[in-house]
Design brief:
Beta-Lactamase, 13 helices, about 650 residues, Helix Hairpins, about 20% strand, elongated, five-stranded antiparallel beta sheet
């Protein structure tokens, strides 16, 4: 809180100080500009005036000498003395033809030569006097940096003879006085400007900064969730409008936040209800928890019941705040006429005052209200929720309770589906076990009769070899061939049954060594096949037996369904893809019709192009791959061979 006040104060001081600095800077710059302008104008005027003055005084002396008004040196000195009273910064010297001073406004110079005056009056005075006497023409020079103007003018008169009038005027003292005056003016103006700035700042602070700081503080409060009305003691219409608009916005925000808070509470309640139904395995415990939540809501009398419809009548499923005998006495006494049964039958919510009930007078109970809501979906009504209330519920409470009732109906439906699914799963498991036992028994029991049939056929062929016709010999061969086919089916069924019962045993397997060993065993049997194995050196954790069934069935299928007159060529490859290992087995066999690719993994299914086989090889492959957590699929073009893909996850230690 202290930090926030400091921040607001810092912001306020920052704005105020900036305004003061800006205003004072503007006034100061304006005053400096005015002073500089005045100084420049006065300086130029004085410079021009003194330049003219220097020339005018020299000409005045020159005119007096030529006109005969000044005939003696004494008259000349008197005349110069009067001129010195006019302008104190004027130095006027009259030299004769020998460059000797005959009259001067400066004391103590009479009789001195122009050379003696070097460094006293001006460094170049001797050269300038000589230049004028020799050339007999005037000189005008300005020394602006030194603040001096110089006029040197020759003269010649019968009384005084030839000579030089030297006039030097220095306007630096005047400029010093001007600067001092301007400094006083600038100081006075600055003081006036400072006082004006302070007055303006106080006005701005009163009518702008303080309201702005209050507004910023109110905005900070809003960001923290504190809704406090904006109070401004100002008369500016703009701030009054801002105040009214801000307070209206504040009121709308309060209402909106209350609505959002209420909605959040409702969403939190509904989320808790959903979590309860998801996590509880028992519908009775879930209903009791949800009912506890509902009766804890404001306005409810800490009492509630949930009835579920079973056998056409409501049965108690959960209760809060009731004893068993109390529920029986109040609710089951008129089971088919009570309001719970009516709500269940009509499928609508019912709100009722307890005084309106038929049995109110005969029961020692205080007055209350009933809110009965059906637990129903679009398809079915499962039961009702009965709540006891102190007062009629608000519209928001009824909406929330209706949502809970709807979620309860969905949860009951899900529980029922789960129970039916569980029962179906148990039945399927039992049927599968019976089928496995039957397959095992059939495949096992068929072996002995088949061996006997095959033996009898061989004995008939040997004993009656000379008496049998060719047609009869073919019949015996057909018997033996079909016996072998049935035996192969029995062996495949037995193998499939054992695979399904197998407990997976993981071990480290080097893929290349494993496949090379399997291929060597197949080639050792003299099979007409070429097997090319490529793939990186890789060790995986898997079940060796299941891998053997996968590869042996796929390789034997490729050999069995090779093209007539051609050797089978098989290419085996593997590579890592993400968290799995992808195997590819490609052959040059007769291929499979694309229409049958989706059904080749079904038991006893054989493609039309496959005249041999039991139809169980690919089923065994699919079963083994799925037991290892993988998937298998294939691609084939009739007459161009088949590509089998299967992916196995990389098992961790």
């Amino acid at each position: 809180m202290v930090s926030e006040k400091k921040n607001s104060s810092a912001l306020f001081n920052s704005i105020g100080s900036r305004i003061i600095v800006i205003v004072i800077s503007i006034f100061f710059i304006a005053s400096l500009s005015f002073a500089y302008y005045q100084y420049y104008i006065q300086h130029e005027y004085i410079r021009f005036s003194y330049n003219k003055l220097s020339d005018s005084i020299a000409r005045m002396v020159f005119s007096g000498i030529l006109s005969g008004s000044i005939n003696t040196e004494k008259e000349l000195r008197d005349f110069l003395s009067r001129l010195s009273n006019i302008e104190e910064s004027l130095a006027l010297i009259v030299f004769d033809s020998n460059k000797k001073v005959i009259a001067s406004t400066e004391k103590g110079l009479s009789g001195k030569s122009s050379e003696d005056l070097k460094g006293i009056i001006e460094e170049e005075i001797d050269e300038e006097v000589s230049e004028v006497l020799n050339g007999f023409r005037p000189i005008k020079r300005s020394y602006f940096r030194r603040g001096e103007y110089e006029t040197v003018m020759p003269f010649e008169s019968p009384a005084l003879g030839k000579g030089v009038i030297y006039a030097l005027i220095d306007f630096r003292p005047v400029m010093k006085r001007l600067k001092a005056t301007l400094v006083k003016q600038v100081f006075t103006l600055s003081l006036i400007f400072a006082l004006c700035s302070l007055a303006i700042y106080l006005l701005i602070r009163r009518h702008v900064l303080l309201p702005m700081a209050a507004f910023l503080k109110a905005v900070e409060d809003v960001t923290r969730g504190v809704y406090r009305e904006l109070k401004l003691d100002v008369s500016l219409m703009e701030f009054l409008t801002l105040k009214r608009g801000f307070n209206r916005m504040l009121g709308a925000l309060r209402k909106r936040e209350e609505v959002i808070k209420e909605k959040n509470e409702q969403l939190s309640t509904l989320y808790w209800v959903s979590e309860t139904f998801l996590n509880e395995t028992s519908i009775e415990r879930a209903l009791e928890k949800v009912l506890l939540l509902m009766v804890a809501t404001g306005g409810i009398k800490k009492k509630g019941l949930i009835f579920l419809q079973k056998g056409g009548r409501p049965e108690l499923a959960a209760k809060v705040g009731f004893e068993d005998d109390e529920v029986h006495r109040r609710c089951t006494r008129r089971i088919f006429n009570c309001i719970c049964s009516r709500a269940l039958k009509e499928g609508t919510s019912i709100f009722m005052d307890s005084e309106a009930e038929e049995h109110f007078d005969c029961l020692e109970i205080e007055r209350h209200y009933h809110l009965i809501m059906p637990i129903m979906t679009r398809m079915r009504t499962y039961g009702v929720i009965c709540l006891y209330l102190y007062e009629p519920p608000s519209e928001e409470l009824r909406v929330l309770l209706n949502h809970i009732s709807e979620k309860t109906a969905v949860a009951i439906e899900r529980y029922n589906l789960y129970e039916r699914l569980n029962e179906t799963s148990k039945k399927l498991t039992s049927v599968n076990e019976e089928m496995r036992s039957l397959l095992n028994a059939v495949s096992h029991d068929l072996r002995n009769p088949l061996v006997s049939i095959e033996g009898y056929a061989d004995m008939l062929k040997e004993d009656l070899s000379g008496e049998l016709k060719i047609e009869q010999i073919e019949f015996l061969k057909g018997i033996k061939r079909n016996v072998e086919y049935i035996s192969e089916i029995a062996r495949a069924l037995l193998k499939l049954s054992r695979i399904e019962k197998r407990v997976i045993s993981l071990e480290d397997i080097n893929i290349r060594e494993f496949i090379d060993g399997l291929c060597s065993d197949i080639l050792a049997k003299g099979q007409d096949v070429e097997i090319n194995v490529s793939g990186p050196e890789l060790t995986i954790r898997s079940d060796r037996t299941l891998l053997w069934h996968i590869f042996s069935n796929l390789i034997n299928n490729s050999i069995k369904y090779a093209k007539d007159g051609e050797s089978a060529i098989i290419e085996i490859d593997w590579m890592k893809e993400g968290n799995g290992l992808m195997f590819t087995l490609r052959d040059n066999g007769i291929g499979i019709d694309r229409e049958q690719l989706d059904s080749v993994f079904l038991p006893f299914h054989r493609a039309t192009s496959m005249s041999e086989g039991t139809g169980l090889g690919l089923s065994i492959v699919k079963k083994c791959v799925e037991m290892l957590g993988g998937k298998v699929w294939l691609d084939s073009v009739k007459g161009q061979g088949t590509i089998v893909y299967f992916e196995l996850p990389l098992q961790e230690e």
